[in-house]
Specification:
Blueprint (H helix, E strand, L loop, with lengths): L1 H24 L6 E4 L7 E2 L5 E2 L1 H12 L10 E2 L2 H9 L4 E7 L8 E17 L16 E4 L4 H10 L4 E4 L3 H9 L5 E5 H10 L7 E17 L4 H16 L1
Parallel strand pairs: 1-4, 1-5, 7-8, 7-9
Antiparallel strand pairs: 2-3, 5-10, 6-9, 6-10
Helix pairs in contact: 2-7, 5-6
Length: about 240
């Protein structure tokens, strides 16, 4: 009997580190963070370090949760790649993501970070006027694959939409300037930054149709442990309440 008890204790001692590692692997500290070039919310600064409104909120929330976030470990990735990775992972976070009805059940959410306005942007000299969603079918619309702008256009007119996609917003700003696309489906404030980065005069462009007014969030895979979500949400709420 003593030998059996001893064997049982030994087995527990062997398995305990394994169970402990499993628990630790499901913690906020182990979440891998992804983002994209989406100024002013998240982008790479002149010094090469990820910065922006959302980044500041995230650093503050992690600090409130008792975690020192190494911002150099945040991975800057093209949106389509990061978006698809998040759909199959419980160990990643992606920001900033617009929270919409169509995305609601695909991810878990922490936020909000900031209000956001998704519009269709045109060159002023084109004098484009859109009175209804049906009018969109006559235009070539540029956007980023899996970005909220493209998703909202498809929600409105389905696959009748003539959409040209690229992974990079900088390319879309130039395509709009060169009339290779008629409209750009994108976040209004972010588009202004890319016009500036391309040395394009912001005054030459205008939003001609609002697709959505919503809020930005930190998004997690749908299978992510709810305790992780609750921990970060509590910390973010406390930061906002200060």
């Amino acid at each position: 009997m003593v030998k059996l008890k001893t064997a049982a204790v030994s087995l527990i001692l062997v398995l305990l580190p394994i169970f402990s590692c499993s628990i630790m692997a499901a913690s906020l500290e182990d979440i891998q963070i992804m983002t994209e070039e989406y100024p002013p919310y998240n982008y790479r600064g002149d010094d090469g370090v990820v910065t922006g409104i959302a980044v500041d909120r995230l650093i503050a929330a992690y600090k409130k949760a008792g975690i020192t976030l190494n911002i150099n470990e945040v991975k800057m990735q093209p949106w389509p790649r990061a978006y698809r990775k998040l759909q199959v992972s419980d160990k990643h976070m992606l920001f900033s993501m617009t929270r919409t009805a169509s995305r609601e059940k695909l991810f878990k959410w922490v936020g909000p970070i900031s209000k956001t306005k998704i519009t269709l942007i045109a060159k002023k000299d084109r004098n484009i006027s859109i009175l209804s969603a049906e009018d969109l079918k006559q235009f070539v619309i540029g956007g980023i694959l899996d970005d909220i702008g493209v998703q909202l256009v498809r929600d409105l007119i389905g696959f009748d939409a003539n959409i040209l996609t690229t992974p990079h917003a900088k390319s879309l700003a130039r395509m709009l300037e060169l009339n290779r696309i008629d409209l750009w489906a994108y976040e209004e404030n972010t588009a202004k930054y890319f016009f500036k980065r391309n040395n394009l005069n912001q005054a030459n462009y205008e939003s001609v149709y609002t697709l959505s007014e919503a809020e930005l969030y930190f998004a997690f895979g749908i299978k992510t442990d709810t305790k992780i979500i609750e921990r970060l949400q509590k910390a973010l709420d406390e930061v906002r309440g200060q």
